[in-house]
Amino acid sequence: MLQFAPHTAVITAFSHKKVNNILRFTRVALLMSSLVITSCIESFEPKVADAPSSYLVVDGAINSHGITVIKLARTTGLANINKSPAETKARIYLEQEGGNRFLLQESPAGTYTSPVLSLAAEQKVRLHFTTANGREYASDFTPAKITPSVDSITWEAGAQGLQIAVNTHDDTKQSRYYRWSFDETWEFTSMEASIVEYKNKNFVFRLDDIYHCWASENSTAIKLGTTVKLGQNVISQQPLTLLPSNSVKLRYKYSILVRQYALSAEEYSYWEALRKNTENIGTLFDPLPTQLTGNVHNVADASEPVIGFVGAQSVSEKRIFITHSQLPREWRSVTGYEMCEHYTIPDPASALPPPSLDEIFAFFETGMPTPISSYKANGLLYVVYATSDCVDCRKRGTNVRPSFWQ
Fold first, then answer.
1. Can you give the three-state secondary structure of the chain, one letter per residue?
2. Which top-rank group of organisms is this from (predicted)?
3. Do 250 and 329 contact (CB within 8 A), yes or no?
4. What is d(CA 35, CA 224) in angstroms, rounded to the nearest whole number?
């Protein structure tokens, strides 16, 4: 049995009193909290200032040594979850300061494409168009900048994944501001190779390959860089994208095509403001959204807001490939098909009577299952199958090998 000194009882009594006070305070605090919580059950919908139903959005840049692609669209309200509507049937052309014009053709809807251009360096050019409702718009004349070549695209496998970066320089010091975009392409396979297909109440050998495919993805993040505050006009190890070590993109072979654009100071400022407005929001410490000031205007009404900045520059490109064998051995990519399973009809483990051939044919005529293989045993036809999403890789990409693939 434990023995206490005489003064321990005094301390214990004091402690019990202190504990009781704490418990009493806690009960009061909980009661007050419950009152506050239960009083905040009504939804709150802030009033949003009235705004025009839509603003015109101009997306694209003038490629002085290639094909120019301009997209016209309209903004939608916050409550609208549909895709922004395209601005179709516009008459759009590129106009040089000397008066030469190059007409753009629409295909698909809202996307306008020029022929291959070769504009002189520093030749001022602008975008000019008239919408289907007769409104006329034009961007400011801007000199066509020469974009320096991409020196290299590098990658490094680290604890966070595969970091891809870009390097460039300009000895002429004509380019101080840069923007990059990129397209990713990767090879992948479906859950299992299908060697048969269902045709006209029969299972025949499959001629097309739906096991090997390629998928592509265009970058959406705004990637900018500048050498204004650097001693040398050199961009070194500018981060572009970070791939997790288990990314499905790294399962077999991965390719990235990087496009580099030289920007004017005004165009860089526009893209930087757009980046802050779209990427750095959501916390108390993020900057407040700012008004975007582009260079596209309504010719008859300068007060109409138009979203977009149309610059002019040549475009430099570089592509690299990365195979899984170049990566750390412990890296294991997900397949994207982890939840997939294959089945057999008739079920060999079932005690029920097997379905008839007509019932099996009717099952596959629905188009939902995709046969993988078939075999005969004990006088019955067995078909191994899975859902189309698990077997047909075309559901997630294309089985046409890209022309640039190595």
1. CCCCCHHHHHHHHHHHHHHHHHHHHHHHHHHHHHHHHHCCCCCCCCCCCCCCCCCEEEEEEEECCCCCEEEEEECCCCCCCCCCCECCCCEEEEEECCCCEEECEECCCCEEECCCCCCCCCCEEEEEEECCCCCEEEECCEECECCCCEEEEEEEEECCEEEEEEEEECCCCCCCEEEEEEEEEEEEECCCCCCEEECCCCEEECCCCCCEEEEEEECCCCEEEECCCCCCCEEEEEEEEEECCCCHHHCCEEEEEEEEEEECHHHHHHHHHHHHHHHCCCCCCCCCCCCCCCCEEECCCCCCCEECCCCEECEEEEEEEEEHHHCCCCCCCCCCCCCCCCEEECCCCCCCCCCCHHHHHHHHHCCCEEEEEEEEECCEEEEEEEEHHHHCHHHCCECCCCCCCC
2. Bacteria
3. no
4. 50
State residue 291's pLDDT score. 74
What is the rounded distance in angstroms from the CA atom of residue 130 to the CA atom of residue 152? 41
Task: Say which range, 43-52, 166-175, 283-292, 388-397, has the weakest mean pLDDT.
Answer: 43-52
What is the pTM assigned to this prediction?
A: 0.82
Question: What are residue 164's DSSP bridge partners?
Answer: 155, 241
pLDDT band at 139 (very low <50, low <70, confident <90, very high): very high
380 CB-side CA count, 13 A: 13
Strand partners, 384: 344, 373
Instruction: Work out the mean pLDDT of the chain and round it to a whole number.
Output: 88
Q: How far apart are CA 90 and CA 112, in angstroms?
A: 9
- Asked if residue 346 has a cis previous peptide bond (ω within 30° of 0), the answer is yes
Cα atoms in the 13 Å half-sphere on the side-chain side of 202: 4
**142 burial type by CB count under 10 A (0-12 exposed, 13-18 middle, 19+ buried):** buried
Mean pLDDT, residues 75-96 taken together: 85
Cα dist from 380 to 95, 349, 359, 365, whole Å: 72, 14, 13, 19
Q: Where are the chain's structural domains?
A: 50-144+265-310
- pLDDT for the residue numbered 50: 53
Task: Name the residue with higher pLDDT: 29 or 65.
Answer: 65
Question: Do residues 171 and 179 make contact, with C-beta atoms less than 8 angstroms apart?
Answer: no
